[in-house]
Amino acid sequence: MGEHASGGSSKTRKSAKKAVVTPEDSSQQAAPAKKAVAVGSAEKKAVGAKGAEKKAAAVKKIAVRPPSGESSTALVRRARRINRELAEVYPYAHPELDFENPFQLLVATVLSAQTTDLRVNQTTPALFARYPAPEDLAAADPEQVEEILRPCGFFRAKTRSVIGLSKALTEDFGGEVPGRLEDLVKLPGVGRKTAFVVLGNAFGRPGITVDTHFQRLVRRWRWTEETDPDKIEAAVGALFPKSDWTDLSHHVIWHGRRICHARKPACGACPIAPLCPAYGEGETDPEKAQKLLKYEKGGFPGQRLKPPQAYLDAGGKPAPPLGAA
Q1: How far apart are the C-alpha atoms of 204 and 216, rounded to whole Å?
Q2: How many other CB atoms are there within 10 angstroms of residue 4's CB atom?
Q3: C-alpha dist (Å) from residue 113 to 91, 192, 212, 325
Q4: What residues are annotated to the active site?
Q5: C-alpha distances in Å from residue 98, one per residue of 6, 103, 153, 252, 274
Q6: Assign residue 222 a region: left if phi > 0, alpha if psi is -120 to 50, beta otherwise?
Q7: Rounded CA gap, 191 and 169, in Å?
Q8: Residue 128 CB neighbours (<10 A)
Q9: Cβ-based neighbours of 72, under 8 Å, separated by 6 or more
């Protein structure tokens, strides 16, 4: 269902190698940056689409502003080099929400707001066992849904969102998840980030997922100084071909969860340290940094109860179900 994980334990061992920064050839002509994604405004509906046009509005192209002393060409090269290195470190990178179809991924992504993918994965089996299709969830008793979603936090608001989007899917889209951005952002609780997760991983349509990890890392790497998610999406999109966007999102988010943490990055265990302008913000001692690693890099269970086989082959462990010791 849009999960294109490819991996193996032999490729994982490449994570230990250090990258070497190639000096920039100033005589080489600058390569034009790729155009940022531009998305058309959603068509106005008479009822129930208030705010959808704003959510699906075109993102203006953001000028690439390299860090001081780095040319635009050098920035593009460094950014793409980082992505290639991360692709070798995480060849099995995949969405960390359990899902079997676009509807499950859509609901799970909405539920993941302000909580972990692990908590969502531990909660959704009971939800989808009882309400397997949009028609079922649309007709559900809100109190019963709230009880199931309670572990996810903000369960009342999330219940309204998932029941509301299920009703919209049933009434407006024949019970099917639409494959267009402008349609997805009309659904209750669905913004650009959620829409791109669904488009990229359930429909194979490229998109950049700008979550908190993505925002933190691209600023640390000085790919952009923007703080607005839509502007970050456009600025980073300009550095990469569109075909790279979905996998790039996985690579960056995985690195943020496993190594480049918010409070204490494991700089001494980072495979892209020579390419990172922020090296030294975290622990640089290799032995101490190794103890900071999370999930499969640290030998701990991952986020998914049912991860792809490539992840298991690389040494990853499935997460425990809700309530397990």
Answers
A1: 25
A2: 14
A3: 26, 13, 11, 25
A4: 193, 211
A5: 17, 12, 18, 19, 34
A6: left
A7: 15
A8: 21
A9: 30, 33, 64, 66
- Ramachandran sector of residue 99 (left: φ over 0; alpha: ψ -120 to 50; beta: rest): beta
- The owner of tokens 């298991």 is 312
What are the beta bridge partners of residue 301?
317
Q: What is the pTM of this model?
A: 0.79
For 105, the token pair is 């991924």
Q: Quick one: tokens of 127? A: 């939800």
Kindly report the number of other CB atoms within 10 A of residue 264's CB atom: 12
Per-residue pLDDT tens, the chain, 325 aa: give them. Answer: 433 333 343 433 344 334 334 333 333 333 444 333 333 333 334 334 444 444 454 445 555 566 667 899 999 999 999 999 999 999 999 999 999 999 999 999 999 999 999 999 999 999 999 999 999 999 999 999 999 999 999 999 999 999 999 999 999 999 999 999 999 999 999 999 999 999 999 999 999 999 999 999 999 999 999 999 999 999 999 999 999 999 999 999 999 999 999 999 999 999 999 999 999 999 999 999 999 999 999 999 999 999 999 999 999 999 999 887 5
Buried b / exposed e over 107-121, threshold 16 CB at 10 Å, is: bbbbbbbeeebbbbb
Please report, to the nearest 10 degrees, the dihedral formed by the alpha carbons of residues 255, 115, 96, 78 taken in order: -20
Q: DSSP labels for 67-86?
A: PTT--HHHHHHHHHHHHHHH
